[in-house]
Amino acid sequence: MASKEPHRVELLQGTLDLIVLRALSTMGPQHAYALTERLAQVADHSFTLNQGTLYPALVRLEQKGWIKGTWDKTESNRDAKFYAITKAGLKALEQQTARWRRLASLVDKLLLNES
Amino acid sequence: MGSPARFVRRLINAVRPRRVEPDLAREVAAHLALLEDDFQRRGLTPDEARLAARRAFGGVELTKDRHRDARSFVWLDDARRDLLYAFRTLRRAPGFAIAIVLTLAVGIGANTALFSVLDGVVLKPLAYPDADRIVTVLNRWTDTGVTIPRLTGADEMDVSASPGIFEAFAYYNGGEMGVQLGDHAEFASTRLVHPDFFRVFGVMPAAGRIFTREDAQRAAVVGAEFARRNFGTERGAIGRTVFVEDRAYDVVGVMPALMRFPSNTEVWLADALDPSNRNRSGHNYRVVAKLAPGKSIESANAQLAALATQLGRAFPDTNGRKSFLVTPLRDSLVSNVRSMLFIIMAAVGLVLLIACANVANLMLAHAAGRSREVAVRAALGATRRHIVGQLFAESLVLALAAGASGLLLARTLTDTLLNVGSRYVPLPRLDDVHMDWRVLLFTAAASVITAVGFGLMPALQLSRANAGDALNQNGARGSVGAGSSRMRNGLVIVQIALSYMLAINAGLFLRSFVTLTETPLGFRTESILVAYAHVPARGSIFDGKGVENYVRVGQRFDDLFSRLRALRGVTAVSGAMGLPTGQYDSDGSYAVEGKHVFGGDFRRLPQAGFRLSAPRYFATMGIPLVRGREFNDGDLYDRPYVAIISESLARQSFGSDDPIGHRLMCGLDQPDKWMTIVGVVGDVRQASPASRPGPELYMPLRQHPYAANEVQIVMRTSLPPESFIGAVEQTVRAVSPDIALKFTTMEASVGDSIAAPRFRMTLVTTFAAIALLLAVAGMYAVMSYVTSQRTSEFGLRAALGAAASDLVRLVLRDAVWLVVIGSGAGIGLAVATSRIVATMLFEVAPVDAWTYSAVLAVAIPLVILAAVMPALRAARVDPMIALRCE
Predict the structure, then answer these.
(1) Domains of chain A, each with CATH number or no CATH
(2) Given an 8 Å threshold on Cβ–Cβ distance, is A59 in contact with B70?
(3) Do B123 and B47 share a structural domain?
C-alpha cells in the first residue's frame, strides 16, 4: 500500500511529539495548518514538516490524552480543528522536556569528550 | 508510546472507524482551504491557489493512510474492511453463498455425526479398566473355519483351567427372564454368571460389593436403574431378595450404569463355579476373560491350540475338529455392525468428497467470474496483498458460516442417529457415543481448506497476471485458460460419478428392502398380539429333578390360554417357544429312525431349528398344515412323543416319501425318546424376512416341560392387537402375580427383525439424495459460469440468425458430454463396489440391470436439467446487450 518516502531531515523519534506539545503550550490552541507554519517559523524554514508526519503525531497525542481537538472557526471564518494541550499533556511535556534535556546534555558531553 | 489507553482506542478505531474517517477528511479539507487562502493572499488566482495548496500539502491519501495507520492497527483495519466487503459481495450473490454454506454444512455435519457414532461403537476401547486385556474365547471348527461364540460346558472347564493364560475367567448365559420381586414380577435382561464375572471387568460397584466364590447360586448384583425402579434407591437394593426360577438370590451389589454387559443386562446371578451342562456337544456357554498381565493374544492362542489338539485326541467325536480362539471382546461385540457402519461411513465420506468438489467448483466459477473486477482493482493500485486478503476474507466468511451450520447439524444428527439407532439397530455400545470434537475439527478443516484454497487459487493467479492483460481480454472476459476449465469439468465429472455410484447402491438397498418387506413369510403378521410370559419353575433338566414343577407350569399355561380365549375380540390363542422373528432361537441335529444313530459326532447328523408349540398354534399363526394333524390337547408329557416337521425338513430327510409315521430323535431335552411325525406344515422365514425358509422341527410344549416355562402367547384379535394389552395383563395377573409379562405385536416383531436393513437403506438413500443434489448444484454452477463467459458469443450468434433452440443445444451438448463421461465412471465404480454391498442385499443381484437403469433413468435427466436453466438464460439474451459486453 504505502510507497517509499523520499529521504528528508528526520526528527528524532519522539521529538515531534515534544515540539507539538511545546508549541501548543506556549501558543494556546492551534489547528494543524497553523502548527505547520509555526514549526517552519521556529525552525527558520530549515525543514518542512510533512503533513504525513504531523497528522499521525496529532492522532497519537490525542489518543494518549495529551491534546484534545475541537472544531472551531478561524479568524478568516473557516472551519478548523483546534488542538489544545490537556493537563496530562502539560505534565507529559514537563517530563519529556526533562528527559530531552538529560539526553541532549548526555549527547553533548559525549561529543565533547570524543573530540 | 504504547500506553494501554491508546491501545484500546486503536482497537476501537479498528472496529468502528465511522466517526473518525469523515472527521479526518474534514480536517484535511480545512487544512487545504487555509493553505489556499494563504496562496490567494500572496496573489495567486483561486485555481492556481488550489493547485499550490495541494502541492504544498503533499499526498492527501498518503496522509490519510498514515493517519489511519497511527490511529488503529492497519492489519486489523484491513481485515475489518475486507470482511465488510466480503459480506457485501456475498449479499449480492446470495444463491452462491447459500449453496456453498449448505454444501459445506452437510459435509461437515453428516461426517461428524456418523464418525462420532462409528468411533464410539467400533474404534474406541471399551470403557472398562485394562479393556485391552478383556477377551472372549470362541469355538472354532478347524475344517470349515467357522466360529461359534459359545463353548461347551466341558470345554469351558478345560480352557479356564489352562495355567498362566487368564487372570480371571467367567462363563455366562441367560437372556430375558422373569424376575420375581415379592409382590410383582418383571421381565429383565438376566444372566447367570460365574462368580468371577465382575473381576474380568474391574468395575467398582455403585453400592455393595461384587461376587465372591462363596456367593455361588446365592447372590445377585443388579443394575443401578433396576435398583432404583424396584427398590427406590441403589443402597436400598442391598440385602433384598430377588427370585428367578424359584431360587432366591440376595442382592449384594449394585452396578453403575456403565456396566451393562452383556446387551443391557440388569440382573446378574452368581451361578455355580462349574457349568451345570458338562457335555462336549452343546455349545451353551459364552465366555469373558481377562488375560494375565503381559500375556499376548498370540501366545494365549498358541497355548489353547495345544489344549485343543489334546482334547481332540481324547474326544475325537466331539473335539476332533475343534479349536479355540481368543479374541478381544471389543472385536466380537461389534463384529455384526462393523461392516455396515463402515459402508455408511464410506457413503458419508463420499458425500464430503462431493461436497468439497462442489465447493471447489463454485469457488472457481465465482472467483473467475470476478477476474475483471480484480483486474480493475489491481489497475487502480490495489496491491496483491489487498486482493488476496479480500478474497481470503470472503472464503473465510463462507467457511465460518458453514462451520457453524455444520456444527449445529452435527449435534442434531448425532442425537437423531442415537435415538433412531437405539430403537432400530442393536448397536452394542451406544453409551460410548458422544459428538466427537476432533472429528468436527477435522471435517471443518477439510472443508474450510477446500473453500479457502480454491477461493484463493484463482486470486493468486489473477493478481499475479498483468492487470492490463486481464483488462484487455474483453472477449473472453477474464484470463481463464483451458487449464482451469478442464479442472472445472473434471470436478463435475467426479461429482457425477461419485453421486451416481452412491445412487446406484442406494437403489440396490432400496430394491432389496422392498423385496424384503414383500417377501411371503409363511405366517400371518396382522392382528396378532404377542405376550412373552415367564412362569418360574425350579429344577434342572440335567439331573431330571423338578420335572413335576415344570409339568405343573405347562398346566398353568393351558389354563391361561383357555381364559384368554374367553376374552371378547380374541379369536384364537396359542403359545410357542421360538416364535418367528422372536427373541429365542434353538437349533441342533436330529436323527431319523433307521437312517442315523443319535450320538457320536453330531455334526454328521442333519440340522433343524427346534420349536415348541401349543395346540392350535399353526391355525392361529396362519401356517398351513400340509399333511397330517396339528398338536392337540392330548399330546401330554406322559403320552407318546410326537413332532411336526416343516416342508423343508420333509424334503431334506424324506425326499418324496410321506414322512408321517416316521420317527425322529433330537437333543432338545430327551435324547432317549423317539418322536413320531404326525404332521407337515408350510415353511416359514424364522429369524427374519431375510432368512431362508429352512428345516424346522416342531414339538408339543407339554411334552418338553423343561423348555416350556417361558412361552410366547400368540393371540389373533378382531380389533387392533395393542388394544388387548390391558385385558390380557389383568387375566394373567388373576392367574398369578409372579408371571412376568412383556408385549409386542407380530407386525412390530417382524419390523424389528429388518430394522438393520431399513436403517441402512434409509441412511444410504439419504446420502445418495444429498450427493445427487450436490452434483446437480455443481452442474448448474459450472454451466452458469460457462454460459456467462460466452454471453457475447451467443449474442453474436443470435445476431447472425441462430435460433434460441440452437443456443440451448449448444450449451446442453457440453453438459451431456459431462454426464455421459460421469455416468460411465459412476457405473464402473458401482460395479467395482458391488462385491462389498453384495452381502447386504436380499434377493437382488449386486449388478442388477433393472436397478442400474432405473436409477440412471432418474439421475441422468436430473443432472442434465441442471444445465437447462443456464442454457435458457443464455438463449434469451438480447443480442444488443450481449454484444455490448465486448
Answers:
(1) 15-114 (1.10.10.10)
(2) yes
(3) no
